[in-house]
Amino acid sequence: MMQNKDIKRLSLYLLFAPFALWIILLVILPHIGMVVLSLKEKIAPRVYEYSFANYLEFLNEPIYWNTLLRTGSMSLLVTALALLIGFPIAYYIAKIAGPRSRGGLFLLCLIPLWVSDLIRAFGWILLLRETGVISNFLLWTGLIGEPVEFLYNDVAVIVGLTYTVILFMIVPLVSTLDGMDNAMIEAGYNLGGSGFTVLRRIIIPYAMPGIVAGCIVTFMLTAGSYLTPILLGGKNSSWFTEQIYNQFITRFNWEGGAAFGMLLLFFTSLVIWLGLKLSGQTLANTVAKS
Amino acid sequence: MTDNPSYDLECLDVSKNFGSIRAVKDVSFDIPSGSFFSILGPSGCGKTTLMRMIAGFEDPSGGDIRIKGKSVLGTPPNKRNVKMVFQHLALFPMMNVYENIAYGLRCNGVGNAEIKRKVHDVLERIALPDVAEREIHQLSGGQKQRIAIARCMVLDPDVLLLDEPLGALDLKLREAMKIELKLLQHQFNTTFVYITHDQSEALVMSDNVAIMNQGEFEQIGTPQELYHHPSTAFVASFVGDSNRWSGVVKSSDSTGGKVETEQGLPMSFSSAGEKTMQEGSRVNIFVRPEFIRTVRAGGGDLQDAAGENRMDGIVDSLLFNGANSRVLVRTGSGELVESDVTLTGENDLKPGEDVHLVWSSKQSMCFADQGKA
């Protein structure tokens, strides 16, 4: 008996160990390090003092918090676009497509994930640049007289980001919509609801946990993305992650970079907290569920 | 044609094909206002397809469906005044009871004060006045059932469709809900169309029952008619229990005749209606267990047991089920015959005893054999 219990306990520890190591070594420790680092102020070479100077610098320099606000608002826009485009796709996969084509369609959504972010961004560059496919096509049709540069503007960044993150919107939506009994939609019509009423009163409320989960994931991924805004937005992208990169690498100001990193974390967490409050959902029944 | 407003629902030659499969074949029926009509059939017989066509979720491949005398073909489901109680009820889990019932009224643009009055009114009528603010998951199975009905009835439908709504309930609750459904139907005085594969549900509750098999209606009638005067072998075997013998007609006239079974036993029957069985034709004979009397061999009461048909056998086993107890008798030719018996606990039949089985030719239902039925 006793031995059996010990074996059970040991196997539990062994199963739990990789998870605990991952959480402690890769999540908790680096973040503690970041917090400590961000609270240090360099007063002379190799002499540091604890202070909030790095955070104050962020507040005193409008370009920094403007960049953060810009990143936040554009990320919200990308999230909204991903939801608007992703919802009909998810609805089609979960409810309209037959059981056989469902798997295939889902796989099609997953295929872009097999290619790295970098390659996907270069794909957009090939399409959008001055000598790219779209510009050439428009020249050929005669709609434009001379080559047009579609890259290096906000639209290109938003299109590219939406494309990158939309999958993370579709997956939780498909799984919640899949769990919805078709009879519920039919009951919505049967009781006199129009297509719009059924969508607004039944389908969307039912899918709310999936919608919120998808929005949280896409917003986090977008606000924290680096490659796509830099490659598609160029110098004009002013993405907050670029500021963090500059602090760390260009200016070798690790303390400033750490403070910016923490600020991005606080900011996105705040936005998500607000979103959860507004939609009346909790983390437990959204992200944890899907 | 029949623009008769006393029928709430009429179906004329309704059919539905899925590819080359004919799920529903030219079904016609009409349901008088305020009656309880059941469609009874084995699973896969097309009854759900028929119901979905009435509700508007499927378009018939042919025929016409009329509600209150008006054709509803081409009317979308949300514009038909036919409401449906789904198999798994399909209550909306994100709304509470009040909102579930109010949903349909809101869709119709009813004012808030009116909604409040109607919802409380219908909750009173289903005897659940205090559950308005409860969430769906806080209700018991029977309560959910009643809320699903209330959600439809609050809209005052012409016809209420019920798609095996008792299937998910446990046995005790199912028995109670059968009676309750019948009472609710009386109370609302609305036409109920009830779909089920459970014959006892259909027989207990319905004014009329249609027996459906392989996309067609075999017979429509009152429960008593179906039980005592089935018009086809399928109805005889599907509704109620019966013992079945195959045989060949030896002699026959308009009142009945004699059959020799495959086991070589003579058996007499009286024909239903004026049908005369062809002599020499193959037939099936059905006899209900409750019409067979089991009499101890050598007992003095054999003379009292009136009946033209007799069989001798040995009690194989007793199936005790209170008032519905049965005895299985192995006859001389080896087959098992079921017969109802009253077990009093004293001097009952015991396995191994010799018995006579006796029944009247009136209770032998004879149908022409249509190949493999």
Automatic annotation (TrEMBL), chain A:
The keyword Nuclease does not apply. It is found in: Cell membrane. Residues 68-275 form the ABC transmembrane type-1 domain. Keywords: Cell membrane, Membrane, Transmembrane, Transmembrane helix, Transport. Pfam families: BPD_transp_1 (PF00528). The keyword Plastid does not apply. One of its GO terms (biological process) is transmembrane transport. GO terms for cellular component: plasma membrane. The chain crosses the membrane at residues 12-32, 74-93, 105-127, 155-174, 210-232, 252-276. It is a multi-pass membrane protein. PANTHER family: INNER MEMBRANE ABC TRANSPORTER PERMEASE PROTEIN YDCU-RELATED, INNER MEMBRANE ABC TRANSPORTER PERMEASE PROTEIN YDCU-RELATED-RELATED. Belongs to the binding-protein-dependent transport system permease family. CysTW subfamily. This is Spermidine/putrescine transport system permease protein PotB. It comes from Roseibium album.
TrEMBL record, chain B:
The keyword Hydrolase applies. GO terms for biological process: quaternary ammonium group transport. InterPro entries: AAA+_ATPase, ABC_SmlMolc_Importer, ABC_transporter-like_ATP-bd, ABC_transporter-like_CS, Mo/tungstate-bd_C_term_dom, P-loop_NTPase, Transp-assoc_OB_typ2. Pfam families: ABC_tran, TOBE_2. It comes from the Bacteria. GO terms for molecular function: ATP binding; ATP hydrolysis activity; transmembrane transporter activity. Its EC number is 3.6.3.31. Keywords: ATP-binding, Hydrolase, Nucleotide-binding, Transport. SMART domains: AAA (SM00382). Residues 9-239 form the ABC transporter domain. It is an enzyme of class 3 (hydrolase). This is Spermidine/putrescine import ATP-binding protein PotA. It comes from Roseibium album.
